[in-house]
């Protein structure tokens, strides 16, 4: 039995402590995900809050079949698309410092952050999603396939193609 299964069972039995544990466990990563899709931190926080509200509204019908985080990513992704459109392209938004100042991503110089942010937001949505989930959310390819509702080979293709497009975009900005 995994820890999430036990947590879900405790929440279904009405444990407020389990609900608080659930929110504390998943809020940071869903917020981080929403920050890539919202124009500012406050909007990302609103989307994150709404993700948890929707989860708890649908919770009585929730059947634990896999990773709980994946279910939250699906909800958050749908909310982000609803809020900002499927083909939402921000004029320009550098990558938030909060998502880059981690052990996995040491602080990137401002110029590099700006270049990476421009290149990332220049990608088509389907490629940007895979990059965000793989590199910034540290999810496995299989998990990304589940979240996006696509087959594993398509995830692999999108990741490879996104890396090519990013390299090309960043190379052009450097004047290469």
Gist?
With 176 residues, this protein is mainly α. The chain has nine helices and no strands.
> What's the CATH architecture name of the largest domain?
Orthogonal Bundle
Number of β-strand runs: 0
Q: What is the N-to-C succession of helices and strands? A: HHHHHHHHH
Query: How large is the count of helical segments?
Result: 9
* Weakly predicted, low-confidence segments: 87-92, 100-104
Q: Can you give the mean pLDDT?
A: 82
C-alpha Rg, in Å? 17 Å
Strand content: under 5%
CATH fold naming of the largest domain: Rna Polymerase Sigma Factor, Chain: A
Q: Tell me the overall shape.
A: globular
Content-based structural category: mainly alpha
What is this structure's SSE topology?
Elements: H1 3-12, H2 16-35, H3 41-58, H4 68-84, H5 97-100, H6 110-122, H7 125-136, H8 141-148, H9 152-173
Describe the structure in your own words.
- By secondary structure, the chain is mainly α.
- It folds into 2 domains: 1-88, RNA polymerase sigma factor, region 2, helix turn helix motif (Rna Polymerase Sigma Factor, Chain: A), CATH 1.10.1740.10; 91-176, Arc Repressor Mutant, subunit A (Orthogonal Bundle), CATH 1.10.10.10.
- The protein is built from 9 helices and no strands.
- The N and C termini lie far apart (53 Å).
